[in-house]
Write a structure and sequence with these properties.
With about 450 residues, the protein is of the alpha/beta class. Helices cover about 40% and strands about 15% of the residues. Strands 4-12-11-10-7-5-6 form a 7-stranded mixed β-sheet, with helices on both faces. A 4-stranded mixed β-sheet has the order 1-2-3-15.
């Protein structure tokens, strides 16, 4: 009997004992293609020599030094490299252990920034429906997924949620993608005015929505309009790139594709590539200076902030991505994977949309293509797909509740950047078999 508290109490899981390239291996020797990188984490696969050696060397030199007393060389070097690549005037890096911590840090920094500047009335955070920003109380409050929020509702902080930019399901027939994007972006301005134009501290959004919508990018012009609105009303723009950042979409920072830069940016997952738990919050020079020239102290902190071994892993991951030109490879392999998905599912009666950027791809399942009607949630389609794909030797990320937290199903794909075209074809083939077996049994 196991004493581990698992994610699901009634699931019997195989034991992972090894990793080789894009594959995980269980204790029976079965190999699974990691088609979702776990949860868009394992961007370099499972046996990268450079990162493994960097972790070992750092453990031998220095395992831990609390940042209340020391900085460390790997943290300083990683921060320098991130800022050298970062968009806009992002200038400072606050290291954490994962995505939820990064988002919590961003929310608290946004609040303290306004307090330090003599605007304590700015207290509201606006986010979007069907977003996901993490599972701690603040991050969960910001997230707009009804299913994840439901049982914790009495504990959550009150926050506003406006429409997502979800072209496939929510654009009207009489709208172009551009006019649709402007309409939903303008919901931000309307909500700011409803709350009080000097009472909103920040707006948070994912440049490409991951877990809850399945790799949904914004339409052209949406984020430019959002940036204009934030600037007009003194609202900070927080971009959550925990899942879509660090090269996953074919840009080191996903917001580069939209031609905008945030005031605060959150990263994690691919930063450590699974070799160490690490995340980061990046902020502009102006935000940092407001703290530095005010109290001089960010009223926040975690024990493992700037952990030297985690920072050493993150540094090695980022160096590998940049020096091996994996961003260009993500774009090329992303085009190949999308073409393979289109060939396999483009005319499938129950695949409504194939979307995404780079190697961050989503497939939405529908009961009827013409009406875009989703399957009855009582069927448990996403859960069945996960099991069927796993039986085929494919790790992927099916999720229910795509449309509103209850209705709709999608599969998220986020394979390692190092995947070959043949391996991506294998991923699509195994997914195709899983889809056909599950839908055929309905």
């Amino acid at each position: 009997m196991s004493h581990v508290f698992p994610r699901h109490c009634h699931a019997t899981l195989p034991t992972a004992v090894g990793g080789e390239g894009c594959f995980l291996i269980d204790s029976d020797g079965k190999r699974y293609f990691d088609g979702s990188g776990g949860a868009a984490v394992s961007c370099l696969g499972h046996s990268n020599i450079r990162v493994r050696e960097a972790v070992k060397a750092q453990v031998d030199q220095l395992a831990f030094a609390h940042t209340g007393f020391f900085t460390s060389e790997p943290a300083e070097r990683l921060a320098d490299l991130l800022i050298a690549q970062a968009p806009g005037d992002l200038d400072r890096v606050y290291f954490v252990s994962g995505g939820s911590e990064a988002v919590e840090s961003a929310i608290k920094l946004a609040r303290q920034y306004h307090v330090e500047r003599g605007q304590p009335q700015r207290r509201h955070l606006i986010a979007r429906r069907q977003s996901y920003h993490g599972n701690t109380i603040g991050a969960l409050s910001a997230g707009g997924n009804a299913w994840r929020r439901q049982q914790f509702g009495p504990l959550l902080v009150e926050m506003s949620h406006i429409a997502p930019c979800y072209d496939y399901a929510e654009r009207r027939d009489d709208e172009t993608p551009e006019t649709y994007g402007q309409r939903v972006a303008n919901e931000l301005e309307a909500e700011i005015l409803r709350l009080g134009e000097d009472s909103v501290m920040a707006f948070i959004a994912e440049p490409v929505v991951g877990a809850t919508l399945g790799a949904v990018p914004a339409v052209p012009g949406y984020f430019r309009r959002v940036r204009e609105i934030c600037d007009r009303y003194g609202v900070l723009l927080i971009l959550d790139e925990v899942m879509c950042g660090m090269g996953r979409t074919g840009h080191l920072f996903a917001c580069d594709a939209d031609g905008v830069a945030p005031d605060i940016l959150c990263i994690a997952k691919g930063l450590g590539a699974g070799y160490q738990p690490i995340g980061a919050m990046l902020c502009s020079a102006g935000i940092y200076d407001s703290i530095a020239q005010g109290t001089g102290f960010f009223q926040h902190g975690h024990t493992y902030v700037g952990h030297p071994v985690a920072a050493a892993a993150g540094l090695a991951v980022l160096q590998e991505i940049l020096e091996q030109d994996l961003i260009a490879q993500v774009r090329q392999r992303g085009d190949h994977a999308r073409a393979a998905l289109q060939a396999r599912f483009g005319q499938h009666a129950h695949i409504g949309d194939i979307r995404g950027r780079g190697l961050f791809l989503g497939v939405e399942l529908v009961a009827d293509r013409a009406s875009k009607q989703s399957f009855d949630p009582a069927l448990g389609l996403a859960g069945r797909l996960k099991k069927a794909a796993f039986a085929e030797g494919l790790v992927c990320y099916p999720m229910p509740g795509t449309r509103d937290g209850r209705n709709g199903d999608h599969v998220l794909l986020a394979p390692p950047f190092i995947a070959s075209e043949a391996e991506l074809d294998l991923m699509v083939d195994r997914l195709g078999r899983a889809v056909d077996s599950v839908i055929g049994a309905l």
